[in-house]
């Protein structure tokens, strides 16, 4: 459960960073695009963690 909470915190931190960069540089700046890719990867990690947990049988 700790790693899930840590990942959620990283997601929120990186989401806020994306918003800040977008406000400063606009949508098509290299920094914004790079941060968007970082956030995408974190979202993918979270989804993999979530769906792996769903597939575990209840014993």
Automatic annotation (TrEMBL):
Transmembrane segments: none annotated. GO terms for molecular function: protein dimerization activity. It comes from the Bacteria. It holds the Pfam family SpoOE-like. InterPro entries: HLH_DNA-bd_sf (IPR036638), Spo0E-like (IPR018540), Spo0E-like_sf (IPR037208). SUPFAM superfamilies: BAS1536-like. One of its GO terms (biological process) is regulation of sporulation. This is Spo0E family sporulation regulatory protein-aspartic acid phosphatase. It comes from Paenibacillus terrae (strain HPL-003). The lineage of its organism: Bacteria, Bacillati, Bacillota, Bacilli, Bacillales.
């Amino acid at each position: 459960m700790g790693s899930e909470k840590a990942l959620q915190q990283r997601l929120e931190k990186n989401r806020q960073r994306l918003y800040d960069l977008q406000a400063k540089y606009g949508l098509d700046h290299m920094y914004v695009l790079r941060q968007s890719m970082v956030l995408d990867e974190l979202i993918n990690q979270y989804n993999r963690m979530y769906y792996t947990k769903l597939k575990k049988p209840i014993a």
